[in-house]
Design a protein that fits this description.
The structure is a homodimer of 412-residue chains. Chain A has 412 residues and is of the alpha+beta class. Chain A has 2 domains: 294 residues, Zn peptidases (Aminopeptidase), CATH 3.40.630; 112 residues, Alpha-Beta Plaits (2-Layer Sandwich). The first copy, chain A, contains 13 helices and 16 strands. In chain A, strands 1, 2, 3, 4, 5, 6, 14, 15 and 16 form a 9-stranded mixed β-sheet that branches. In chain A, strands 7, 9, 10, 12 and 13 form a 5-stranded antiparallel β-sheet that branches. In chain A, helix 4 packs across helix 13, helix 9 packs antiparallel against helix 10 and helix 11 packs across helix 13. The first copy, chain A, starts with a helix and ends with a helix. Chains A and B meet through strand 8, helix 9, strand 9, strand 10 and strand 11 of A and strand 8, helix 9, strand 9, strand 10 and strand 11 of B.
């Protein structure tokens, strides 16, 4: 493996591949509209498939449309080290979210081809179907089916707003395949951070420890409408005042707990929402996240306590409904260690980080040792046509991926 | 005037008149839809006019449709003591808002007729056009034109959402009259409180000191959208968090200043208003009220200071636009004193109170000594079909009006 220490991916080829892919579904503002199982998605898949064939890879498609491009290793039957992400985008998405992980995996295999390196375990690039969930729910559909989180027959029946099912859409683009699920030896996913931490700390590589658990709430506050003029302050039951206190409490919870705590109120609807009427009703959401399940539960308790106190103090009634619980996910320490070591060996600035959002890697981690590599994106912005990343950061992340994958392919 | 001390209005007749009027534009939920210058408004005016003629009153209509029904006094040329309010309603209004003040004035004149009492100064009942402002802006249109706040030619051009002008609407219902503005010796307006204070304190008569001044603001807060998951708490520029702090500050301002201070945030619009996105933009309103102009100005200063501090602390930009300034109005102490004395003489529970909302009396106070009499309304609710008031409270308020008017008619 001494040769491997000098091996580098081709950053220009990686960038050229990303830009060629970004022309498929390109939007006027420089983004991408490549919604899952549409003609644009098919075109993106076809380009990826052609590149895979040109690289001598063996391509398979499974029943939910996941694509697997294999480069055999010395031990043909060893479970493969898989790299991947997704080629579908948000309706007004960017050029890198998902596409980077697939193209980085392809570039790793191309670089190994160029150098004539043979690995012990086989290597694969996976492109998971419908990560975004913007046309068909749920998100993470392809990786969810592959890992058994979702049952295929039910998922194939899900419909978009036009009434088209997942099964019909898969057939219409020619990607209802026949490959059976296979064992995964290890899984790596490279991705833009979709957050501001790396840019803010001038760091090139994020060594991802896992993904935050999430608890989401719908909150309804009921007070009493009243005229703003004739109603003295002490006779009010102001639902918006209670909502404002709760918003600050959620922020306090996000700030005061350890383990990458986040607390967010993103949505608020006020009734009657008239400038001279004391609001009688507010509906709002609360989003709590944490890397540790026990801490997330303690945050939930703090939220419940805050709600009780505010309802008493403001003389309003508050109902709370937990609509999502998603447990935290911890990535495999040995794989995470290889990502960190690769960054260090390459002399790249790096730091431990968590994924605040979900990725296909979260579901893969339920069936195989998993890790992720983050690279910075401009302003932390994604799910937006102005999403941007620097070619040198994308190349650096791909070099880290190459090293971590090579080390894992030998160690499996 | 010894006979006057024993004089009482006829509470049953007052209630019957209110109920007869409430059948015009009656809604299924027990409210009234008698929007200004519509056929229902005409029908209400015609009923009032018929009752005035039956009471031997001399009726005039001015160019903005204000109606004046006069009962002459011993001195024909003395300026009249005017009682009044408005017959138009909100689109989903109640049976008492406005109608009570007009019917109470009529009942005072009927009671004087029955008792054969002759006053020194003439007495009038006024019904002001378009107090509500729900079809044509501005509110308080008729009293505003009468008192010179608005210029008649401009007001006649104002259009409703169908493009019909005030002038056209007045002609279509036959109420573009020719009476010239006349001098007013004094003005009294009886009205339901439209707030909870009298009911909350089990008081029958509100002795109204004046009306609160108002300053209204549009506030726009700009932070930065960010994903709730990947964005750590300390890297956020959360516009909703700033809005929540400002909401609590406005409440603190309302609670901490003297002179009937009120501070209300009634309207809030969040963008993008998605549960897992840190809000980048909030638009909200602030409504400050106070009985003293200097205190209202101090509240404005406190608001500005709070906004500056919040913008710095939360790293957001906040723009503020004052969209309404309405100075406080203080009623005439001698008239207010007669209202208080009347309530005391009649053995009615009473308390000093301010009007949090504007009334025609506010404009009348700019041209004549003015006072108001408040009576309780159920739950403090108005501008709503469920608006309600008790017959005995309405009768009590009318008896107070009778006494205060009689005393004033002799003193002018």
């Amino acid at each position: 493996m001494e040769a491997a220490r000098k091996l580098r991916i081709d950053g220009e080829r990686l960038w050229a591949s990303l830009m060629a892919l970004a022309r498929i579904g390109a939007t006027p503002k420089g983004g991408v509209r490549r919604v899952t199982l549409t003609p644009a998605d098919r075109e993106g898949r076809e380009l990826f498939a052609r590149w895979c064939r040109e690289a001598g890879l063996e391509l398979r498609v499974d029943a939910i449309g996941n694509m697997f491009a294999r480069r055999n290793g010395a031990e043909r039957d060893a479970p493969p080290v898989v790299m991947g992400s997704h080629l579908d985008s948000q309706p007004n998405g960017g050029r890198f979210d998902g596409a980077y992980g697939v193209m980085a995996g392809l570039e790793v295999l191309r670089a190994l081809n160029d150098a004539g390196v043979r690995t012990r375990a086989p290597l694969e690039v996976a492109s998971w179907t419908n990560e975004e969930g913007s046309r068909f729910v749920p998100t993470l559909m392809g990786s969810g089916v592959f890992t058994g989180v979702y049952a295929l027959p039910e998922i194939l029946k899900n419909k978009d707003t036009e009434g088209i099912t997942v099964g019909e859409a898969l057939k219409s683009i020619g990607y209802a395949g026949e490959a059976r699920p296979h064992q995964v030896g290890a899984y790596f996913e490279a991705h833009i951070e979709q957050g501001p931490v790396l840019e803010d700390t001038r760091t090139t590589i994020g060594v991802v420890q896992g993904a935050l658990g999430q608890r989401w709430y719908d909150v309804a506050i009921t007070g009493q409408d009243a005229h703003a003029g004739p109603t003295p302050m002490d006779l009010r039951k102001d639902a918006l005042l209670a909502a404002a206190e709760l918003t600050l409490e959620v922020n306090r919870i996000g700030n005061s707990f350890p383990d990458y705590a986040r607390g967010t109120v993103g949505h608020m609807q006020v009734k009657p929402n008239s400038r001279n009427v004391v609001p009688g009703e507010v509906r709002m959401t609360v989003d709590l996240r944490n890397a540790r399940d026990a801490t997330l539960l303690a945050m939930k308790k703090a939220l419940t306590d805050a709600i009780d106190a505010i309802a008493r103090k403001r003389r309003v009634s508050i109902s709370t409904d937990e609509v999502v619980y998603f447990p935290p996910c911890e990535f495999a320490p040995e794989l995470v260690g290889r990502v960190r070591a690769a960054a260090a060996d390459l002399g790249l600035s790096h730091r431990d980080i968590v994924s605040g959002a979900a990725h296909d890697a979260v579901y893969l981690s339920r069936v195989a040792p998993t890790a992720m590599v983050f690279v910075p994106c401009e302003g932390g912005i994604s799910h937006n046509e102005i999403e941007n990343a620097r070619p040198e950061d994308l190349a650096a992340g791909c070099d880290v991926l190459l090293r971590a994958v090579l080390a894992t392919a030998e160690a499996l």
